Amino acid sequence: MTHLAYVAAAYAAAFLTVAGLVLWVWLDGRARRRELAILEAAGIRRRSAGEAK
Amino acid sequence: MSEQSLAIRKFSDLANPTRFLALSGAVWPWMAAATALFFAVGLYLCFATVGDYQQGETVRIMYVHVPAAWLSMMCYSVMALSALGTLVWRHPLADVSAKTAAPIGACFTFIALVTGSLWGKPMWGTWWVWDARLTSVFVLFLMYLGLIALNRAVDDPARAAKVGAILILVGFVNIPIIKFSVDWWNTLHQPASVIRLDGPAIDPEFLRPLLVMAIAFTLLFFTLHIVAMRNEILRRRVSTLRRLAARSAGRGTSGPVPAGVGEGHP
Lengths: 53, 266
Prior knowledge:
The complex is a heterodimer.
Chain A: H1 4-41
Chain B: H1 17-48, H2 59-89, H3 92-124, H4 132-153, H5 157-171, H6 174-184, H7 204-251
Helix pairs in contact in B: 1-7, 2-3, 2-5, 2-7, 3-4, 3-5, 3-7, 4-5, 4-6
């Protein structure tokens, strides 16, 4: 009557969801910074880009 | 733009995306560290405390379920405030905030639904019932998905922001319904046991891990939200720069893009 499987499943589901969310946010940021770096390398930049990051 | 002008002197200064990037860049690593710390302590308490005399081990599901459910409602409230910011003050960051909060809120609602179901099966004998609490939270989940779909369906961020903000505010009526559904209707879901006028009705043994986990989840939400907002600002800068690059390529000229471009709505 301990229902440990239900507890484990609940924690696993919560962990996987949060891990997926963190991974998505992290990969999204990395891809956007890469795009900006490519644009900057091509000479396309904001006039204030030098000082303000 | 000098370092000096990036100083935040009043709250509305935060609405400047460049200032927001500078400030949030310094703050979010600390928030991430605090989140990890609170989760470490919280998860330890989750499994170090005793089981309930009736629920047994399944009481530990509550330490995830309840904070996730709270956060699912708080996230929507943050979106509603952002929607007001979009419609009333037209802060350039308000729409970025509302848009990026939706997927995070959907995830927290999903966690609340799944863990609740996994608690319901052994304790109630059923995965799901269509009572007022469960149904209204399910509606919240669908609203999050609808708002995400809307944001992706409309190309122009400014138009998506306006329509989205109105929908968010209309949907906010669901939040008090979720909160008070257990009082207004006869639900299988139990009424509030922590946030009530006569004080928490649960033992400190269970309250302690619950509160630490609630703080951990709240920190997790704000950390993810800030980082996602930074990503969204960068995404809009990229699309603005690409458009300007295409335009100047069409004219056969190239040169620096005017300052201020890519801040807020392109």
